[in-house]
Structures are given as structure tokens and as C-alpha cells.
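Researcher: Next sequence.
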Amino acid sequence: MLNAHGHVSDLIFSPGRLPQVELQGQLVPIQVPGLRPLTADDTRRIAADLIDNNKQAVNLLREQGFCDISYGLSGVARFRVNVFIQRGSCAVVMRVIPTEIPTLASLGLPDELAAITELREGIVLVTGPRASGRSSTLAALLDRINEQRSCHIITVEDPIEFLHNHKRATVHQRELHSDTPTFALGLNATMRQAPQVILVSELRDRGTMEMALEAAETGHLVLSSLNTMDPAKTIERVLGMFLSSEQITTRSRLAKTLRYAITQRLLPRRDGKGRVAAVEILKITSRIRAFIENESQPAIGLMQAMQNAAGEGIQTLDAALENLVRSGQVTAETALAYASDPKTFTATTA
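Model: Next structure:
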């Protein structure tokens, strides 16, 4: 399935369908002579082989109807696997994770992001929709720190995707369910394990966010992700995890600890060869910090502040899209479909 097409991002096994791969957002069936659509028994056996003897995954599948695990083919690829129940049968989605950790350059990310790896404390959030490359970006940032700094790195992931070997840094990777029952408990334990850098694959709830804020406040660099579509929504999502009575305090804590909020989307390339990242960069300056602290400031004010601070390591999504159009990597029509302000974008790229 991996070799059937170039740039395969996911493998999908569903009852009643041929095995499928995802290419640039499109599902393509695997056409092999004699291969028939999968049955419910087929997908159940595939799920059982992938889960193997992972009792935690079996329990989660029974209790919650889904489980996340990692799976590797030595020398070929690693996969983030989601097994779930639908209409009483199993279905499986396997996200392809390259065995080689990507670099910022290989991902086509802006040079400005290299400054993140020089931070000693604070929170860095990589956001975007599902399948936007957040995990790859976090892995590239972590690997750069691993190469350049003699420090202790601890990750808490669900599941572990990229495997980080010790380089200049010492790296310990913990997986949810098998190594720690929850993100919050894993982070709480991490605080007693003397790390300088902490990576949490996703901030999903108040407990995890609280521990991330506490870690940043006590001098740790925390890298994580959120499923949000722009910087304003990122700030709104974080604040929304807390009670209304905690909002003022949380705004102040977030303003003091947040260093970067990076939002990315993957767009189909003009030449049809894969996808390219459009990256929005919110770097926290004194003016941006004031917007976060002031609850009366609307989201449009934050966008205006980002546009005015374009020369300070800040980049709006529309500016990133315009650069991709000018460099010939994506078509104007594709960029327009993703633009946050289509009217302004159309005028500046006409």
C-alpha cells in the first residue's frame, strides 16, 4: 500500500471497501488482481494483529469504542493507528510517520521558527486542523533542540510517533496509557524528573493546560499542539478550558508564558507533487501580550496587530499564502480558498 502511490499519508481499512490510501486529501482504492473488498472479519483480524497484546488498547476499544496505538515496520515506516468500532465492526486508520525525523527546511517551514529552539522557558503551541503536519513540526523543533543543546527532554505522547535518539540532549519518551494513564498525571510526574524541555503531543483539557502553564512558569520550555484554526481561536480555546471566575488570572498567566502560537495548513502544490505548508506565526511581543491580557480586545484587533508587526518575526496566514503564490508553489485559486481575508488577498495577488 505504501508503494502503490507516492506521498501516501494514510492507510484505511473499512468493511465493504477495498484497502485505501489517502493522497493529498483524496481516498484511492488499492487495485490488485484478486483483491476483494474487506469483510468485517478481515478488519477485525487486522485490528487484532495491530493491537497484539496491548491490554490497555483492548480495554479502551471495549469501553470507549476506539483506541490509539503506534505500529512500526522496521526500516520502512512507523504508523499512528486508530482502531474504532462502527456499526458493530472494526475500522482502522493508519497515519504514516516517516522513520526519519524531518527538519524545518525539509518541511518548508519559515526560517523564523528556528528561534524557538533557542528559548529556555515558556509555551510554544503548534496549531491547525487535523492532518496539517503539527506532529512533524513539533518533531523537527524537538530534534533541533536535541542536536544543539545538552539538556533533558521528556515527552508525553498519544501515541509516540517519531522516535528520538539521544544526541546532545537526553530524551525520554512516555506514551499515554502504557507509560502514564493521563496527560495531566504524566506532566505532574515530569515536573519531578528534572527536564528542561517538555513536549506534550496535545493539550486536550484543563488539567493538562494547568500543568503546562505551571511548567512554563517554573522555567521549563513546553512544546505542544492544539486543534485550532488561527491565533485568536487558539487563545480562545485555552481560556475556554477554565471557569469564568478564572479568566482574568488565566489571561495573565497565558500572556506571561506564551512565546509562539503557530498555525499551519497543508495546501496541494501547483505541480501536483504533494502538499506545501502555509504557516501563520504569532510571536508574543509586548503589544501582542497586551491584547491577550485585555479581554475587551476583539479578535480583529489581534489580526491588525499581527499585520502591523510583520517585521518582528510575525507572519499572517494571508501573507504566507501570498508568498506561496509568488514563488509558484500553489495557484492563486488554491490560496484564495484558504485565505482568512479573501477580499484583501485577491487585491494583493491580482
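Model: The chain has two domains: 8-97, 111-315. Residues 8-97 form a domain with the Beta-Lactamase fold (CATH 3.30.450.90).
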